Amino acid sequence: MKINFEFVDKHYAARTHEKMKEVLMDPNGDGPVNYYYMIRGGKEQKNITIWEPGTVCGEYIKTYGHYHVGKLDETYWILYGKAVAVEQKLALDKEGNMIPNVVEEFRAIPVKAGDSIHFASGHGHLCANVGGTYFVTADDSPVGFEDKKDEASMPGHADYLLVQKMRGFAYYVVEYRGKPALVKNKLYKEIKKQDLGGLLIIEK
Ligand SMILES: [Fe+2]
């Protein structure tokens, strides 16, 4: 396989606490400087993500979450640790645009090393690290270093704005009596269908 070494120094990025405040259940909570680290090799070489363990005001350390631009599915292979993967598909208006606060289908999926998860095209996704160790994945989403400066941190295939607008997904993954549970994000108006993966919903 031919690797393009020209972009190697651009492969790495980290998601900071400052940026994550936009999507935290409690933006005033204390968290690590960096929540997760990304090394982007793209579809062929794969992308590696490493999550810090821990909670911020009870919410497990998570990825920011995004929707894919255009028709693009994605597979994550869990290499180490334990997480709850969160997937949501937004309802569409008459023009086919996503309605930010109406969820057609929500899923929480507990995962561990050895599992893989497939996210269908149009399904937003994030993972929350619910173990006491780093959580590590490989995924096959594309990168395009040629046309974008900040590709490692904010790849062109991902739309973060809908998540930013809603301050996260429809539920936050929180620690409750030592185990993962869910807290509803009250900014969402409706969730039409949900599969919570056996997790409890608690009030915060
Ligand atoms: Fe993705």
From TrEMBL:
The keyword Nucleotide-binding does not apply. InterPro entries: G6P_isomerase_prok, RmlC-like_jellyroll, RmlC_Cupin_sf. Gene3D superfamilies: Jelly Rolls. Keywords: Gluconeogenesis, Glycolysis. One of its GO terms (cellular component) is cytoplasm. It catalyses: alpha-D-glucose 6-phosphate = beta-D-fructose 6-phosphate. The keyword Transmembrane does not apply. Its EC number is 5.3.1.9. GO terms for molecular function: glucose-6-phosphate isomerase activity. It holds the Pfam family GPI. Belongs to the archaeal-type GPI family. This is glucose-6-phosphate isomerase.
